[in-house]
């Protein structure tokens, strides 16, 4: 996937362990926004955080070792990498970079106030909106990759991370399921966010001048048919996120390209909405999960959902037996997803009369409507353990029961500004 995102005050992933390469492009509009409705903080607020994560992303073992030393009050240093103050805007260069303080490493605030929530993308992304819905008045921290958002929480730079996992039109986001297994964070909540896509371009650009449309792969997939109906038979190019596509067009003054992003992204980056509500279906909803270092205590006084991942043992009808453990206890499954088992991707089976058969090995992700505080859920997982070689509870958390209104049908709202 091609990355077109310009530099922004976000936590970034770097392949170089010792240096931070200054950006050649300045972050526009949102870097020092004073809009009270915007979620997040300015670049200078996260200089030290950015400096840490600009180093090579550490392995899981290194992360656990670092967290252990912090909790154990070790005298070891956090090994900050150099930060090039010349890469800052002139009005920011006078502010000195400060190391993390005990406040940065303190426990998460209560009741969601002043929570630091990491998300992938730039201001105006749908993930940022999901963070604001889950934790009003939070400090949203933009990250250039999902991996960095995980690391921000593991290194105590952020208290939560928001992660999209599935969309009602585009389906599952497979990469993020793999990250859930690779890292040791816990799911502590979910948000279902209605997604309202717009076609954005620079002011004065007409649709007949467009030669390509850029957006996140999910955004392109969710608007595929509508773009064709609008006569936009142009190249469609995938980038890292929807708001990043809008930022790229504005920062580089690209007049032959349109972006699929939110109306808020148009406001932030000074773009014009050529078409509104261009998703193929009005009921376009993305489900996000909230991640934390520690799990929450499951309860029974409100609807809960539990997410697990398992690998089944060798044998016949194993998956059927696993699913039966939930069916016999009247537990509804809301999601089942299979992903390749990267540790053992292929299993060879010798058949006496056939030869050697190759069976693909999978990890199975399951969401079910029950709290781990309920005896039926505990008994179901006890039975599941009998048929699995690996079982992990990713989280037991409250279901998102908030009501939402679908976007207007695209046929009536997708009127082009000519």
TrEMBL record:
Prephenate dehydratase domain segment(s): 116-293
InterPro entries linked to this entry: ACT-like_dom_sf, ACT_dom, Preph_deHydtase, Preph_deHydtase_CS
UniProt keyword annotation of Transit peptide present: yes
Pathway of action: Amino-acid biosynthesis; L-phenylalanine biosynthesis; L-phenylalanine from L-arogenate: step 1/1
Keywords: Amino-acid biosynthesis, Aromatic amino acid biosynthesis, Chloroplast, Lyase, Phenylalanine biosynthesis, Plastid, Transit peptide
GO terms, biological process: L-phenylalanine biosynthetic process
Domain of life: Eukaryota
Chemical reaction(s) catalysed: L-arogenate + H(+) = L-phenylalanine + CO2 + H2O
Its biological purpose: Converts the prephenate produced from the shikimate-chorismate pathway into phenylalanine.
Protein name per its UniProtKB record: Arogenate dehydratase
